[in-house]
Amino acid sequence: MCLVVGVPNTQEQAKEFNMSKASIVAASKQAERDVAAALGGRRLHAGEWQGEGDVDAVGPDFIAQVKQRKDVAGWLQEGVKQVEEALQSKDELKRLQPDIDDYPNPLVVIVTKPGSGRPSRKFVLMSMETYQGIHDKCNHRYRD
Predict the structure, then answer these.
(1) Which is it for strands 122-125 and 57-59: parallel, antiparallel or unpaired?
(2) pTM for the complete prediction?
(3) How does pLDDT run across 34-91, given as a tens digit for each residue?
(4) CA 96/CA 43 separation, integer angstroms
(5) Burial letters for 17-41: b for 16+ Cβ neighbours within 10 Å, e otherwise?
């Protein structure tokens, strides 16, 4: 799960915005707090994670590594825009998939092309709102 926020992520970018390294670190920590709060979890403090890899936030049903960037790649933004616009075409969606939910989840799926002999990987990207809707729907089903 990633949340992209509009702050510089390198010292070079910070210079453009007149931000100190301390400001960048503070913004990064705040992004981690915001993600944790939005997902019903908590931000881990530096050094608190003792396992493999790295985790910035944790909750009862998620772990998250939060990446902050000033922006994301244009092709990725275009994919998000296209799938979100497609949600407005309810009649076309019903024509193509008659049993589709009234509010389907808009997903962007990224498939890697690693080359000969190596398997591709698939990544699902969705907005925080889409994830929260799926999460709430799943939790509601378990409670009933």
Answers:
(1) unpaired
(2) 0.68
(3) 999 998 899 999 889 998 999 999 998 899 999 988 888 999 999 999 999 999 999 9
(4) 42
(5) eebeeeebeebbbebbebbbebbeb
